[in-house]
Give the backbone structure.
Amino acid sequence: MNVCFVTSECAPFAKTGGLADVSASLPIVLSQKGVRVKLIMPLYSSISVLDFGFVQAVELSQTVISMGHETIPIDVWYGHLPHSDVEVYLIDCPRFYHRGSIYTGDPDEADRFILLQHAAFVIMQRYDFSPDIIHSNDWQTALMPAMLKYHYNWDKLFSTTRTVLSIHNLAYQGLTDPDFAFRAGLPRELADKGGLFEFSGALSFLKTGIMTADRLSTVSPTYAREIQSESFGEGLDGLLRMRSGCLRGILNGIDTDVWNPSTDPHIPNHFSAQDLSGKALCRLSLAKEMGLKLEKGDPLMGIVSRFASQKGFDLLVSVFRDLMRFSNLRFAILGSGDPYFEAFFHQMSSEYPGRVAVHKGMNEGLAHRIEAASDMFLMPSYYEPCGLNQMYSLRYGTIPIVHKTGGLADTVFDADEFPELGTGFSFWNATPDVLKDTIFRAMDWLEDRKQWKAIQSRGMNTDFSWAKSADEYIEMYSSAQKEAC
């Protein structure tokens, strides 16, 4: 089976969130299961091609991409995902991709990703690569199913190609001026008011993909159900219910080689479910690194996140001082985003020196060390399509505290609700008081070290590898080839 996997980001080359981790891991496991995968993404200025062993694809030098009435030259760099046979093609176009960040919000943001999608088709044509499946991811590549149907349908290379669109976060839909439809090779009338691809007066990349892909997937079973409701559907719930027969929720996996407390090069002491002694040493090391004053018995809460309204940090803001006043809780916080939350956490570190430590930005090594050292990990997200940090936490014997939504509901089982199966603590109602009660409930359990170790052991022994999920993707690919839905 041949699969063209097109994405706007992929670790370790470029990353802003979970999409990059999925793009780095799923294609490798698919390859190990006999699928031939070509991964295509932009060459951002932050990517050092030589460090990753890329070479220029000279046969594609100064390839011209047609976008409406304009032709745009590109170069292509060729390499592989680290330690794998997965071929990677980086689209080199300084005009669009040599900017300060992966996503810009600039007026030509739609053009940047229309170019990526055209380039993916052209690369397949140049290499005579006939994909059984084109796998698009999120709004940035969601036009490809429609482009195949309306613009590249003349090419017999794609005569048996089917399309899959994975929705990693429905909230980001790629709304843009309907004029961009022409640059994507799509009929303009379909982007106009009342057209198949129009949403709120704009061309919606994501709606276009939802309406035209042969199969749809999301990154957890619960999220697949949630987005068909008015509460989580972002205005597209009716369309998703209409296409529910084509929609499947497949839980993301994690790279269990990268996230392995027994071998992790980022942490100072290794440990396992059988021997947790190294975790206590990681705790002492992190305290020194971040300037925390940690006595034996002081609970340590970890946070590694984007600071965004979706993540539920306004709930924490409302009860933070109560948590500090009525407990000996410590916080190790890593992240950046909304200036309000950045300023709040900075203020808390000033008010509670030695008890609250904050590192602004993202730091892969520090993220691993926080996961390894913490007793608990907080994810109070209002919605979370899948989430990965709760799975990293479970792997490291760090007990997640989560809102019961999306992938958080699928991966964390409350210790009070399921005494023999519990792996963490969760809450239904996303209110400040409920969050506070859940944190205090977790700290009560922490005082019983025998029970706490049982929760840790269950989480650490849960299989979150990609193997099962990759099998589900292959089955979905096969069903798309066999029949329409």
Q: What stands out?
A: The domain at 277-460 is CATH 3.40.50.2000 (Rossmann fold).
